[in-house]
Amino acid sequence: MELAYIPSPSRGVIHLGPIPLRGYAFCIIIGVFVAVWLGNKRWVARGGRVGTVADIAVWAVPFGLVGGRLYHVITDYELYFSEGRDWVDAFKIWEGGLGIWGAIALGALGAWIGCRRRGIPLPAYADAVAPGIAFAQAIGRWGNWFNQELYGRPTDLPWALKITSSTDGRVPGTYHPTFLYESLWCIGVALLVIWADRRFKLGHGRAFALYVAAYCAGRAWIEYMRVDDAHHILGVRLNVWTALVVFLLAVTYLVVSAKKRPGREAVVEPGASGDDADAEVEGGTETDAGTADAKKAEGDKTEGGKAEGETAEADASDAAEDEKEPSDEAESATKKA
């Protein structure tokens, strides 16, 4: 008997006239805004300029979306290119299907391009945005809830997910809400990175590496619970292998980087402090600066006038002495006569 469960939405899209409003897309968009907002706060705290994170995100986000979609289509190509399927569906990103591995890989490429254009080290930028990315994933996973996808094995637990759709081979019933498990795990990862970054002053990409390692550790066991179709290697789902390999790479980077480049970058965005000071003068202290300059000029003028007066007085004194000497000589000659 089902006493409690998490209901699935009856539909994942609402039409506002001819415009479809999709829950999956809204979750992705909200996640991106949260990532940029938090990344900007962390970047400024590290000494960067306001707006730099958003400027680089203009490169990173589109690359990430393309990478995420490519990974999904390549690893699940039979959904789009097998008999009876329409390959055009591979471009319908709003219907779901983004692989985080491809999103991070190509998203990093886009961020690298943006950082190169701004003269910013990519590792420092990655450290700033790492917790925001984890929060974005936590929000984005709710898009799977709207699409009734990526659930786990059947269960009768009170927090089971109720699947009502029978599309694409789904069997209605109650299942482990793996989307919820991953969402909560990502929140924990974000909080872990924020704490560790403050406690250990992580730099040179180590905060991002910690995020990757922690996410992969959770993704491995969550992926193992899923029952949707997937490719297997040696009886294990492909994404489990991917999580294991990426986890080992992230941990290796953490260890090697800590030994070779300990500490944190002193400067993350060259010229940011000077530009901020200039902006402050232009914004509100220009009058004060002008007043200070005027006072300085007046002081210089006063000192110059004083010095000039002292010089003239000294010259007059010397002239008086010169006049006195001939008079003394004339008086002496008169006495002798």
TrEMBL record:
The keyword Membrane applies. It is an enzyme of class 2 (transferase). The keyword Cell membrane applies. Its main location: membrane. It is found in: Cell membrane. Keywords: Cell membrane, Membrane, Transferase, Transmembrane, Transmembrane helix. Residues 275-285, 310-331 have a biased composition (Acidic residues). Pathway: Protein modification; lipoprotein biosynthesis (diacylglyceryl transfer). Pfam families: LGT. One of its GO terms (molecular function) is phosphatidylglycerol-prolipoprotein diacylglyceryl transferase activity. Residues 266-337 are annotated as: Disordered. Residues 293-309 have a biased composition (Basic and acidic residues). Belongs to the Lgt family. Catalyzes the transfer of the diacylglyceryl group from phosphatidylglycerol to the sulfhydryl group of the N-terminal cysteine of a prolipoprotein, the first step in the formation of mature lipoproteins. This is Phosphatidylglycerol--prolipoprotein diacylglyceryl transferase. It comes from Streptomyces sp. R28. The gene is lgt.
